[in-house]
Write a structure and sequence with these properties.
alpha/beta, Alpha-Beta Plaits, seven-stranded mixed beta sheet, four-stranded antiparallel beta sheet, 27% helix
Amino acid sequence: MSNIYIGYHFTVEPKELGSEILIAELGEKAFESFIESDFGVVAYVQKDLWTAAILEDIQILNSPEFTVSYTMEEIDQVNWNEEWEKNFEPIDVDHICHVRAPFHPKTKAEFDIIIEPKMSFGTGHHETTHMMIQHLLETDVRGLKTLDMGCGTAILAILAEMKGAEPIDAIDIDNWCYLNSIENAERNNCSKISVYEGDAALLEGKKYDVIIANINRNILLNDMQAYVDCLNPQGMLFLSGFYSEDFDAINASCVEKGLLFAKKLERNNWISLKYVN
């Protein structure tokens, strides 16, 4: 397979919500990397996997609620580190947690996390990751057995270990996320994190004091019983990856399974919820 890529530069309006939907739809195709830009999203697909009809079923392109335009370019030998360096700015969460790439200077933040995102999600830029970081920052997790479900870059597992959680399991169904999580855990000198490739089937027989699940509405609803089954008494469940309008469905699923609603964070129409067993 060649190393030549086709790069699509999408301009999206409204940007935040539109970019998220566009990335989700493109992710179902052969696109393997996404970088958020000032105007929307840059998406890459290997030329050998590209077809003229690759955008045919991308529904947001025909949605009256969004305006999406794009240009294309052929790129030889994509330097992913260079691409991230051009587009990845450090993140500061409440002046306590600083998330940066290896090429950014260290700050005096209490929690300094180094993430090489590559083609995985979870740099702290997205609202859902930002809110999950906020939940963890205000929660005492010292000595608590923790699960980071759908770990992406393992940023939340890394923060949990920095705050004293142990042991920690980080699970993602995507092979790239699995490999990237191992790499990021090592980069941050984490020794309490075990990374696994798979889905909720891996949770059978496991028990946790804290479960972090930043995925999406449908997967959360499908796997909610599995989370509840492995949550210890007085355990905490943190959820995100969905919109404000999804609250009723998520909350109903949690409450009917015996969980108590504890807190809601909201950021640009995305929400993050905390439940207690």
